[in-house]
Structures are given as structure tokens and as C-alpha cells.
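step=predict obj=UspA domain-containing protein n=164
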Amino acid sequence: MASQAEAEKQVMVVGIDDSEHSTYALEWTLDHFFAPYATDHPFKLVLVHSKATPSAAIGLAGPGAAEVLPLVEADLKKIAARVVEKARELCSTKSVRDVVVEVVEGDARNVLCEAVEKHHASILVVGSHGYGAIKRAVLGSVSDYCAHHAHCTVMIVKRPKIKH
């Protein structure tokens, strides 16, 4: 049973994937909202990884797809397990123990907005991949979509540009 203080905490959802941008966003969030508070964190932390469906990942459903789908599914499960493990290790390193981690199948945009609703989150944190205008227009920006559709504050964490 969660303590009374734990039950009253606001929820922070952090979107995680297998990118350096995601890792940076999680680390930044832990450093600014969790590490300074020892064990009395101001938020309940929920990490959400959106796992693509096999058919979406390969973008086909024609002849031959049936043989490939199980292989793609196995690969997506391995990636998800890696993402979750890395995130848990990072939280553990920063002494953040009470973390809820979810892997949800679907498009990241919808998965993250639905997680906000499900957990009644007051803030959603996403990393910025730093795509240019053309790539963002083609791929669609998860952070942009969430900023417009999530029913909470959305914090987009950008990695600083590396100066050479």
C-alpha cells in the first residue's frame, strides 16, 4: 500500500525510447526533479516506452510478411527490454527507486497522450530528436504532437549542441 504522501503526489510521465535524446531527457529530469530531493521526490515517476507494432515497423503486409513479422516482433521486444533496462539502471544510479515502467504497443504520439490520461499526469517529459523541418514534416514530431494534444504540461528536453 502506498503511503498517503505517495498517493497525493503529482505524476510525471517520461517517454523513453532507444535514442540518446531520450536518455538525455530522462537523465536531465532525474537530475532536476528527483536527485535533489533524496527519497522525498515531488513526483511519482512513470516511464513509458512505445513499442511499434511489427507491421508498422516494416511498413508492409503483403506476400512474405507473415514469415517476417515474428522476427520483427522478437526484435522489437528485445529493443523494448533494452530500453526498459537502461532506464531502470539510470534511475537506480540516481537513487530513484519507486518507478513505474510501462511498455505499450502503438504509435508513440498516441501512447504518450493516453498514458497522461491513464495516470492523470500533471507533466509529460519527452526528448527532442532535433530533426530539421523536412524530416519533422515527413516523420511527424512526437514532441510537437504531444505539446498540442496531451492534457497536461509538456516539457521538451533538448540536448545541448556539442561545440567542436
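step=describe
The two ends are 51 Å apart (CA to CA).
step=end
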